[in-house]
């Protein structure tokens, strides 16, 4: 009886183990390059829809245990196009990966429209895409650079519409001279100051009137990208005018091929939310012999207490209305 029980238990375990092995199968093969046919090491091979995977060895060979119901292997490697291959009933799957010619090296514009690969530069640069600036929907794109460039300080003369914005890279270098970087638009240097406007936000011309900084005339939707050069690198390319750095703006241009039209539309609604407190208990007036007298032409002192039920007006609050702005942009390339 004991022998029969042992035989049945052994038979059951063997059946379960065989079923487990039947649920897995091993796929092997080699991954090669389409350029020279050499094996590619370090290629990621995964079973589509699962976490099972492996990497190819030094000569491009691989070996992977996959579920019995696996249908597709995914091969991916930097610089090559991803490939998805059906397994079928095969146990050996060889793959040739195509070079991805669509992957472009990161290119920046340095001086006078000259383009160089970023890895070839011997100095640090920062780049901001024009789309990031346009998405902020700010009329003055200089204010949109805040928080997108390291070491930048941006100040505005006021919170009014059309207020000037000034930018300083890595702090000011002069107490009385201009601390702003040089702006270069498609190779043409542009001054960001305006006539009769001071270099400092506290200068008298800036407090009396505001003519808006000239770079604000650029439509953010026309900007392709912005490259920022700091320190000696800017001076070496643009001279003493760029001693405080240089901001190089490349605008959008037409491209070979089919015509492309970009349209964007945005709405802005603004309301003033904070107003100064106004007293309505006392009327305008003055004090004569320690007696308050009402004088409607006096604004500097208080007069007698207003009669009950006398209407009062908050002219500051009544002056403001709901602001509405609509901006529609059509760009043809």
UniProtKB/TrEMBL annotation:
**Gene Ontology, cellular component aspect:** cell outer membrane
Q: Name one GO molecular function term.
A: siderophore uptake transmembrane transporter activity
- Supply the InterPro entries for this chain: CarboxyPept-like_regulatory (IPR008969), Plug_dom (IPR012910), Plug_dom_sf (IPR037066), TonB-dep_OMP_SusC/RagA_CS (IPR023997), TonB-dep_rcpt-like (IPR039426)
User: What PROSITE patterns does this protein map onto?
Assistant: TONB_DEPENDENT_REC_3 (PS52016)
Q: Do you know which SUPFAM superfamilies this protein is assigned to?
A: Carboxypeptidase regulatory domain-like, Porins
Q: How does it sit in the membrane?
A: Multi-pass membrane protein
Top-rank lineage group of the source organism: Bacteria
Q: Where is the signal peptide?
A: 1-22
BP GO terms, sorted: siderophore transmembrane transport
* Pfam families (alphabetical): CarbopepD_reg_2 (PF13715), Plug (PF07715)
Keywords carried by this UniProt record: Cell outer membrane, Membrane, Receptor, Signal, Transmembrane, Transmembrane beta strand, Transport
Its localization reads:
Cell outer membrane
Domain TonB-dependent receptor plug, residue spans:
118-246
- Give the similarity note: Belongs to the TonB-dependent receptor family.
Report what the protein is called: TonB-dependent outer membrane receptor, SusC/RagA subfamily, signature region
